[in-house]
Amino acid sequence: MQKYFITKNHRLIDIAFLLAATISLQIYFLFDLGFYSDDWAFLGVLSNIKSSGLLTFIYDFFIIYKDILITRPIQVIQLSSLYWFFDTSPLGYHISNLFFLSLLVIYFYLSLNKLNAPRIAAFTIPLIYTLLPHYSTTRMWVASFTINVSTCFFFINIYANMKYIESLEKGKSSWQWLLTSLASLAISILAYEVIVPLFVLNFLITWWKCRSKGLKCAGIISLSVLIYLLCILFKVHYSTRIGGYNSNYLISITQAFKSAAINDFYTYGFKLPKHIWHLFQTRTSGNTYFIALSLSLIIFLYLIQFKIQAYTRRFWLLTILSGAVIYLMGYSIFLTANNLSPTPTGINNRVTTAAAIGVSACFFGSIGLASFHIRNKNIKTFIFAFPVSVLCGSGYIANYAISTFFSRSYISQLKILDSLQRRGPELTTKNTLILDGICPYVGPAPIFDCEWDLAGALQKIYKNTYIKADVRTNRLSYNEKGLTTITYGKKNFYAYNQYLIIYNNQTEKYFILKNFEDAKAYFTTNLSSDISTCAEGREGYGVNIF
């Protein structure tokens, strides 16, 4: 079996191809994206920090958000640095994300290469991964971009470990690769959590590589495990998200993992052709299909150069098994916390980023196994290349379709904020504004759906971090004492007074809710603003588009 790349040129061509696929998808909707949900909460704080230097700016942001972001210091650095350089221009944020997505797929490929994976696996698995719609949120939502940073440094860690082992083979220990390995480990874990369990595989692979070559790697493994444990202890000590299981633990875990598997292998597997056809009939432009078909054709022509017949049934089965192990480990962080809420298109699908590595391996192995049983070499190659190219093209279409909702959401947000500035009241530190007359979601993308996104946007506009705001959704209720909203299960109460204002975006009028009579009069006479006229959606999921 062919295990190594034939020439250096093949490696460069493969990398160029992977980069082209990644960039061709992201660049298509990059210029239409904006800010969403948590982004506004962060911007509301960042826009009111007065610091003369970048380091003090980062520190001030950390101090303000330390209760929430203390376990993710890399996210603090990323968000504050992006604001420092790009202010409230979303394009710079999304270009930086494209950089990390590109770096991620490069080191994914190089890592598999260093692990002696056959060229067909080292190329095809990252190709499928970079176009999967399973974790579409991390392509569009600024608050989730840190997950891509974490995943990118995970692969850098694998690559650095293998390069360090190569230096030992040559009789010299490379401290540069050792430091790169340790630094990438810490950065990845301190950026986000979903990738953390997969580092156990990294340690095992490093140990196995050293053992098979007769090398002593106790130093790098010991230091890696030490840093790994210290980072985990740090997160456990400060995390507020551990636990939260109110019902039977096994039942909750089983239901969550079952829902995830349905999304990952059924919704985006067996039913994907149906969903793509539905998008073609209802939402996606013809240009998108033309680009996706062109990309699929190019991928098909590229893949048919590989000699599929060289790989055994054992290889394909081991690939599927490896993918399944990675998939389960990619979700295993949620064994410690009750916040796995799988969704195919909503912002909660960010949690699939690590598991999607296993998904791409399972898809690759399953398609390869299906082709194995074909005797004719040409048909065998076709049976492999065609499904892979269709899968990649379908991922392109699904990702773009999801992005159109985020683009529409940002346009709606800007119109709402413009209306509030033109026709709304002057807001002071004492005011609380309730936004009415909008649908909180457009497809899976949130417009404004909770207290922190609208409040953050208003804090940015009015340069006042004390302004409070919330949104009327189907979770709002009122009684003799005040209004109550519910966000992610948390109740927010707003007592009637002269500072409680409700703004109707449809009529562009605002009303002061001083007492129960005012509230009753408003909600009785503004039936046209009833949220029940909006498509049914919920936090983290939005509205189902399939």
Automatic annotation (TrEMBL):
Record flagged with keyword Membrane: yes
Positions of transmembrane segments: 12-31, 91-110, 140-162, 182-205, 217-238, 286-303, 315-334, 354-374, 381-402
Keyword field: Membrane, Transmembrane, Transmembrane helix
Protein name: YfhO family protein
Organism: Hymenobacter qilianensis
